[in-house]
């Protein structure tokens, strides 16, 4: 090959360009590191709002973990997600906090409102017969503590009872109260109720991804909030011991609902993310949501499915709830795992479902949800 003067000049310029690029790499990397450090320092400099903790931006594994024998198909495949920094409540919203909201706004929860059959039947299977008027009264679902035996585990009506007069102020019916239970998580909260509280508090509900990020604490792929050892659950969370739903042995200190902060927090300082009460998220439930995610890519701040799908309940839009409750047991509902995802209809309130709120930096800056 014949080299011309132009060829030599071109080669020389190309070589100089390579040298210049190599010389610039450390500077560019340094600039990136400096920017990341500035962001981290600025984040850490912000004082978390009272009762909240900061969850820093991170990439973690969402969904079923390796070695999790209880993982369900709706938790698979596991995939990496990136979630921006945000603040989250250390505990579920308590009776005392919800009472303050009600006192200041006069808000009436869904469980306290008269039932409109014409509206209710729109979310039920066609031709559902109208119940007797004595049944169509304000109330909510409570766990039946007097179950003596069940036939199979598929019919949950054997241990759930519609209780007229059950609501957040009367969690087990009109004869009960929350007197002396200010530090218990508020229950019988429908999705609409949780949103109303969030609007008043200038907060919002967490996405499922944010919830899992917080539950992981300073980790990225734990099965439980404390690690991967299931046997530690008796000292780490309020769940069911004994024979569900007939006999509950309070080996963990509580037969049913427990006050917040009854167990040690996770590594981020957050309490009771597993067991005690389920928690609402802002994600629409879709049983096939994870299947349609590209598990080879990192998903950036996922907001959940865009459409609802649950073949078990096609008539009512349901939302994702996380964390399990005091009713979770290996034989029926082993949902005291970070990846566990269940659903419930928006208008449902029960005595084992509550919520906690989150706040991101844009909301903090603008002081609005």
Work out the strand percent: 5-15%
Name given to the CATH architecture of the largest domain: Alpha-Beta Complex
Indicate the structural class.
alpha+beta
Gyration radius, in Å: 25 Å
The succession of helices and strands, N to C, reads HEEEEHHEEHHHEEEEEEEEH
Helix fraction, binned, reads 10-25%
Q: Which descriptor suits the 3D outline?
A: globular
Query: CATH homologous superfamily of the largest domain, by name?
Result: paralog of FGE (formylglycine-generating enzyme)
What is the overall number of helices? 7
Q: Residue-averaged pLDDT, rounded?
A: 86
Highest-level CATH class of the largest domain: Alpha Beta
Amino-to-carboxy terminus distance: 69 Å
Beta-strand segment tally: 14
Side-by-side strand order of the widest sheet? 12-11-9-13
CATH fold name of the largest domain: paralog of FGE (formylglycine-generating enzyme)
Structural commentary:
With 369 residues, the chain is of the alpha+beta class. It has 2 domains: 1-45; 51-366, paralog of FGE (formylglycine-generating enzyme) (Alpha-Beta Complex), CATH 3.90.1580. The chain has helices at residues 5-45, 95-105, 117-120, 191-201, 208-216, 233-236, 361-366, and strands at 52-55, 58-62, 79-83, 86-89, 139-143, 160-164, 242-243, 247-248, 278-284, 299-300, 318-322, 341-345, 353-354, 358-359. The strands form 5 sheets. It has a 4-stranded mixed sheet with strand order 12-11-9-13, with no helix packed on it. A 3-stranded antiparallel sheet has the order 1-4-14. A 3-stranded mixed sheet has the order 2-3-10, covered by helices on one side. β7 (242-243) and β8 (247-248) form a beta hairpin. The longest helix is centred in the first third of the chain and has 41 residues, at 5-45. The radius of gyration is 25 Å and the shape is globular. Mean pLDDT is 86; it is low at 1-25.
């Amino acid at each position: 090959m014949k080299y011309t003067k132009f060829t030599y000049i071109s080669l020389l310029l190309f070589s100089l360009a390579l040298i210049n690029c190599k010389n610039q790499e450390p500077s560019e990397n340094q600039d990136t590191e400096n920017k990341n450090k500035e962001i981290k320092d600025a984040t850490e400099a912000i004082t978390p709002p009272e009762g909240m903790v900061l969850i820093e931006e991170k990439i973690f594994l969402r969904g079923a973990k390796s070695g999790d024998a209880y993982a369900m198909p709706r938790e698979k495949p596991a995939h990496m997600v990136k979630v921006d920094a945000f603040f989250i409540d250390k505990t579920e919203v308590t009776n005392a906090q919800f009472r303050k909201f009600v006192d200041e706004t006069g808000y009436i929860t869904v469980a306290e409102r008269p039932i409109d059959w014409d509206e209710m039947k729109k979310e039920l299977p066609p031709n559902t017969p109208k119940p007797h008027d004595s049944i169509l009264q304000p109330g909510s679902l409570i766990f039946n503590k007097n179950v003596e035996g069940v036939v199979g585990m598929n019919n949950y009506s054997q241990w759930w009872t519609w209780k007229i007069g059950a609501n957040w102020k009367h969690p087990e019916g009109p004869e009960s109260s929350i007197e002396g239970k200010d530090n218990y998580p508020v229950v019988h909260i429908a999705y609409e109720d949780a949103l109303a509280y969030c609007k008043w508090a200038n907060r919002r509900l967490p996405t499922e991804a944010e919830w899992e990020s917080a539950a992981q604490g300073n980790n990225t792929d734990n099965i439980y909030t404390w690690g991967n050892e299931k046997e530690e659950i008796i000292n780490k969370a309020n769940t069911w011991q004994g024979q569900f739903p007939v006999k509950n042995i309070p080996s963990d200190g509580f037969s049913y609902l427990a006050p917040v902060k009854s167990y040690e927090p996770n590594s981020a300082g957050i309490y009771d993310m597993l067991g005690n009460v389920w928690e609402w998220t802002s994600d629409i439930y879709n049983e096939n949501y994870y299947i349609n995610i590209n598990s080879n890519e990192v998903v950036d701040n996922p907001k959940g499915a865009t459409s609802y799908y649950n073949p078990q309940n096609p008539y009512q839009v349901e939302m994702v709830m996380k964390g399990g409750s005091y009713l979770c047991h290996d034989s029926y509902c082993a949902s005291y795992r970070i990846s566990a995802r269940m659903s419930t209809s928006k208008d449902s309130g029960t005595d084992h479902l509550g919520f906690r709120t989150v706040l991101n930096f844009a909301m903090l800056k603008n002081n609005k949800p």
